[in-house]
Design brief:
Number of strands: 2
Membrane topology: Multi-pass membrane protein
Pathway: Cell wall biogenesis; peptidoglycan biosynthesis
Number of helices: 12
Shape: globular
Radius of gyration: 20 Å
Order of helices and strands: HHHHEEHHHHHHHH
Structural class: mainly alpha
Largest sheet: 2 strands, antiparallel
Protein name: Phospho-N-acetylmuramoyl-pentapeptide-transferase
Helix content: 55-70%
Keywords: Cell cycle, Cell division, Cell membrane, Cell shape, Cell wall biogenesis/degradation, Magnesium, Membrane, Metal-binding, Peptidoglycan synthesis, Transferase, Transmembrane, Transmembrane helix
GO cellular component, one term: plasma membrane
Distance between the termini: 27 Å
């Protein structure tokens, strides 16, 4: 518990106090936001706002986690480091995209396929590392099985021959990573929207990781009568600590990112956060639970898919005034703050449903 509070507190302190320093630095470097010409007219005033704020969030998350481990004397774990690796890797892809926008002086950076290639490379590296480094009990950070609240019977790595099993597992990992990172990226369109929703999603993994630690199959303190309910998960407490660090970093960043935002996450931040969320889901063996925990992100991404499909099928007609769907409500006349807060409520309800489903599965066993 001390490590959780320390990680969250130090990461929060980092972003709360140092974000203005980065805002000034980014302005000097001319790292300002460019606005879509077809977007809501109310967004034109945001042009030039400091972007790439994801750099601050990533640095704060790493600082919070590392400092908490050193202060408490705990050990660094592979699972937590893999979460940070995914976050940094996808953050780097997003940074290249953001940097190209500032260099080209336009709102388009990396091409769609180039961005996908970057995401796939990070996903493959993560996937290969995650099925190695077994602990003393033989548990690896990721088991290779498709999971909901814990591993299901379908283990992709057991598909024969082994080479095909590894390929199928990497395809599944890539699907999860690209879908989640792009969904969070699409959600990042209003001041504080993606930041607040990510606080709720990542915060759920603080709860899940800490619960799994208390009910770990590897814990000698686990009551014998509850052993059949235990979680065969590696490093759950360390995963909860890194989730707490990311959560604390986001809370401090939201102080400067809320409307009117003085700094944006940029693709650097939104893609990094998508990576963190999916990595947390994989190491806690709750991959399919992302359908609930990341419910708002799915709605946002789904609105874009539906809009484009309907546009093509009907040769130019639209379901929404603009996608992602948060822009639809803006164009209907909702104030930006109203859209953000109501979407936070939706995100919170989905997260409550996800954590609730996780707990219900445990008590129903």
């Amino acid at each position: 518990m001390i490590a959780l509070l320390t990680a969250a507190g130090l990461a929060l302190l980092f972003t709360l106090t140092l974000t203005p320093v980065f805002i000034n630095l980014f302005h000097k470097l001319q790292w300002g936001q460019f606005i879509r010409s077809d977007g809501p007219k109310s967004h034109y005033s945001k042009r030039g706002t400091a972007t790439m704020g994801g750099i601050v969030v990533i640095l704060a998350s790493i600082f919070g986690y590392v400092a908490a481990i050193l202060i408490t004397g705990d050990s660094f774990t592979v699972s937590a480091l893999l979460v940070l690796l995914m976050m940094v890797g996808l953050g780097l892809v997003g940074f290249i995209d953001d940097f190209m926008k500032t260099r080209k002086q336009q709102s388009l950076g990396l091409g769609g396929w180039a961005k996908i290639v970057g995401q796939v490379l990070v996903a493959v590296v993560f996937g290969l590392l995650a099925i190695n480094f077994p602990n003393a009990q033989g548990a690896t950070p990721v088991s290779g099985a498709i999971s909901f609240t814990r591993d299901l019977d379908l283990n992709l790595l057991l598909i024969s021959p082994i080479a095909i099993g590894i390929v199928v597992y990497l395809l599944w990992t890539t699907l999860l990573v690209t879908a989640t990172s792009n969904a969070v990226n699409l959600t990042d369109g209003l001041d504080g929207l993606a930041t607040g929703a990510s606080i709720l999603a990542v915060g759920s993994y603080v709860i899940i990781g800490f619960w799994q630690y208390n009910q770990s199959c590897f814990s000698p303190a686990l009551a014998e009568e509850l052993a059949y309910k235990c979680y065969d998960v590696r490093d759950p407490l360390s995963v909860a600590v890194v989730a707490a660090a990311i959560c604390g970093a986001l809370v401090g960043f939201l102080w400067w990112n809320t409307s009117p935002a003085q700094i944006f996450l940029g693709d650097t931040g939104s893609m990094a956060l998508g990576g963190a969320v999916v990595a947390l889901a994989m190491v806690t063996r709750t991959e399919l639970l992302l359908l609930l925990i990341g419910g708002l992100f799915i709605i946002e991404a789904g609105s874009v898919i539906v809009q484009r499909a309907y546009f093509k099928v009907t040769h130019g007609k639209r379901i929404f005034r603009m996608s992602p769907i948060h822009h639809h409500f803006e164009l209907k006349g909702w104030a930006e703050v109203t859209v953000v807060v109501r979407f936070w409520i939706v995100a919170g309800l989905f997260v409550c449903a996800g954590v609730g489903a996780f707990y219900v599965e445990w008590i129903s066993r």
